[in-house]
């Protein structure tokens, strides 16, 4: 009985990944445009760093290559994190726009399967896109990765997945709560994460309240940890505190976000907010 | 699977005094004068009904009469404010997961991923309903062929299909999952007469072959007369009359006899065409 039920849910889980793959393929022109946009954004950050010397900063005053690597790692990771976040957070908006939301919510599957299926598809696609951009960076910039510890970076990157999914699911609740304004609110959340998580600067430069918010953001530990591993060769052992914090945040955020999503779904069904127009 | 005589009198759907109201009461406030005062809309007002297994039950009503709200409640997409609704003995609120295993729905607007093809949309549906493995493509092709849809449309984006073709794919998708209860919300609206006839034939044969129960909301009185074993007339969220088409005509069409449309007009005080005209405006 449990085996059958699990097989049913796994089949649906695969269905969500398959559906997303088909959507990415069918919308390939849009996807190509977004990939180009991401690439151009990351490149412009890289060239900004290259141009710092011509802005009056002498190579002796600051290690320009280190600064460039610092910014590029931030830009690349943000591209990945924001894309995965976007895909999960907009899962509901997207289905409402297509008009399929009621069909998906009526299906005999657990909501957890629905959400995890969407998350898995986003992660796979996000990694693939970030890898393409990373490859372009390696060709276009002289990156000094001689001190990099890839295993530590990978460990932090993997641990960051859990809290990232939690944040994404939390944000996907917004369009369920408000069909009209939820999408804009999700964009605002994404903007706040960019501000407080130290994507392009250490969070110590932020004023008090924003600094505290930065400490609470899992993206801060992801960016810090991956940077330390790639720039300064942080060991796997040294990465463990960051990995631990990220896992702990994930263990709290994922179940909490799924629970909140369930409550929001109950509310949406009570108020009749699942319909396309809301 | 043939319908057993013993099953015909068991209830597929039992709705007891369901009410549903949309919107919360909001008064105009002097501090926010730009916000208009709002009064809640009563969509269903103590509706009770029973749908027997293996039957086609029609719900006739004008726009805003509460038909779609009722269908959404049975599809577990809305929760009632009061009353209970059971689908094969499972409560639509507390036993929603079990209810979902028994039902599927065809809505008036074909709900698809428009860039994806019919095959990709149907494969996704099959996955959500526990299938999608080998043999699914064959079943999809057979179903679409039966609905008169050219097979070369199977891999084209949905947006390239006509409204009628999209609706046929929606119907095929619902049948693909072999539901015990099929909720059809104006499934033939917008179809040409030939397509409408093909869909109606398919509904009849599916009911006959698979013992499926169908709850059919329709504007088409002739369709209701031809397809439905029983018909409910609903207006302003209340059930006005219930019976076989013949019983309704006999009881409500007037002393000289008449049609189901006459019965509907006498019960609700309006023609369905008026409602269609309002919708177009």
- For the CA atoms, what is the radius of gyration of chain B? 20 Å
Overall pLDDT level of chain A: 88
The profile of the biggest β sheet of chain B is: 6 strands, mixed
Count of domain modules of chain A:
1
Low-pLDDT residue intervals, each spanning 5 or more residues of chain A: none
Helix and strand string of chain A, N-terminal first?
A: HHHHHHHHHHH
Percent of residues in helices of chain A comes to over 70%
Cα separation of the termini of chain A? 38 Å
Structure notes:
The complex is a heterodimer of chains A (278) and B (281). Chain A has 278 residues and is an all-alpha fold. Chain A has one domain. Helix content of chain A is 79%, strand content 0%. Chain A is built from 11 helices and no strands. In chain A, α1 (2-26) packs across α6 (111-140) and α3 (64-89) packs antiparallel against α8 (182-196). Chain A is globular and about 65 Å long. Chain B is α/β, with parallel strands linked by helices. Chain B has one domain: P-loop containing nucleotide triphosphate hydrolases (Rossmann fold). Chain B contains 10 helices and 10 strands. Chain B has helices spanning 67-74, 96-102, 118-128, 136-146, 163-176, 193-210, 221-227, 245-252, 260-268, 272-280, and strands spanning 11-22, 41-52, 56-60, 82-87, 90-91, 103-106, 181-185, 213-218, 230-235, 238-243. In chain B, the strands form 2 sheets. A 6-stranded mixed beta sheet of chain B has the order 6-7-8-3-9-10, sandwiched between helices. In chain B, β4 and β5 form a beta hairpin. In chain B, α3 packs parallel to α5 (163-176). In chain B, 46% of the residues are buried. The model of chain B has no long low-confidence stretch (mean pLDDT 84). The A-B interface holds A 8, 11-12, 14-16, 18-19, 22-23, 26-27, 98-100, 102-110, 266, 269-272, 274, 276 and B 22, 72, 75-79, 97, 100-101, 103-105, 107, 109, 111-116, 120, 123-132, 157.
């Amino acid at each position: 009985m449990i085996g059958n039920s699990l097989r049913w849910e796994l089949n649906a889980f695969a269905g969500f990944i398959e559906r997303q793959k088909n959507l990415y393929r069918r919308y390939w022109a849009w996807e190509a445009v977004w990939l180009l946009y991401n690439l151009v954004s990351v490149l412009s950050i890289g060239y900004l760093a290259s141009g710092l010397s011509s802005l009056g900063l002498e190579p002796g005053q600051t290690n320009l290559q280190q600064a460039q690597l610092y910014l590029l790692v931030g830009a690349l990771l943000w591209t990945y994190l924001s894309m995965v976040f976007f895909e999960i957070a907009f899962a509901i908006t997207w289905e409402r726009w297509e008009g399929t939301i009621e069909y998906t919510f009526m299906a005999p599957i657990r909501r957890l399967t629905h959400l995890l299926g969407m998350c898995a598809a986003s992660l796979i696609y996000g990694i693939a896109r970030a890898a393409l951009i990373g490859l372009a960076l390696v060709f276009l910039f002289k990156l000094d990765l001689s001190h990099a510890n890839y295993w530590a970076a990978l460990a932090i990157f993997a641990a960051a997945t859990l809290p990232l999914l939690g944040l994404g699911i939390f944000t996907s609740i917004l369009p369920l709560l408000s069909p009209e304004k939820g999408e804009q609110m999700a964009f605002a959340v994404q903007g706040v994460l960019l501000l407080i998580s130290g994507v392009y600067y250490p969070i110590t430069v932020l004023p008090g309240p924003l600094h505290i918010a930065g400490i609470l953001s899992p993206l801060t530990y992801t960016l810090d940890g991956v940077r330390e591993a790639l720039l300064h060769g942080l060991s796997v052992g040294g990465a463990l505190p960051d990995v631990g914090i990220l896992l702990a945040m994930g263990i709290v955020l994922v179940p909490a976000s799924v629970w909140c999503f369930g409550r929001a779904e109950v509310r949406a069904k009570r108020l009749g907010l699942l319909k396309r127009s809301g | 699977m043939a319908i057993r005589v013993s099953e015909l009198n068991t209830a597929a759907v039992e709705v007891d005094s369901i009410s549903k109201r949309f919107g919360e009461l909001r008064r105009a406030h002097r501090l926010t004068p730009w916000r208009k005062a709002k009064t809640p809309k009563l969509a269903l007002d103590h509706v009770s009904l029973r749908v027997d297994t293996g039957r086609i039950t029609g719900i006739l009503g004008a726009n805003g009469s509460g038909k779609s709200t009722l269908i959404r409640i049975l599809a577990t997409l809305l929760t009632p404010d009061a009353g209970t609704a059971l689908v094969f003995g499972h409560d639509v609120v507390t036993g929603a997961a079990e209810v979902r295993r028994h039902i599927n729905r065809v809505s008036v607007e074909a709900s698809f991923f428009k860039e994806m093809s019919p095959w990709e949309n149907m494969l996704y549906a099959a996955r959500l309903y526990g299938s999608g493995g080998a043999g699914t493509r064959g079943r999809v092709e057979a179903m679409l062929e039966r609905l008169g849809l050219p097979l070369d449309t199977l891999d084209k984006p949905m947006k390239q299909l006509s409204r009628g073709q999209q609706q046929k794919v929606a119907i095929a998708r619902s049948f693909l999952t072999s539901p015990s209860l099929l909720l059809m919300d104006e499934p033939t609206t917008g179809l040409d007469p030939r397509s409408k006839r093909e869909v109606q034939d398919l509904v009849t044969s599916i009911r006959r072959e698979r013992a499926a129960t169908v709850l059919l909301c329709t504007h088409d009185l002739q369709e209701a007369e031809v397809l439905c074993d029983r018909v409910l007339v609903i207006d302003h969220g209340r059930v006005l009359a219930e019976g076989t088409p013949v019983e309704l005509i006999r009881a409500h069409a007037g002393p000289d006899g008449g049609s189901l449309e006459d019965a509907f007009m006498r019960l609700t005080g309006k023609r369905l065409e008026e409602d269609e005209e309002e919708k177009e405006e």
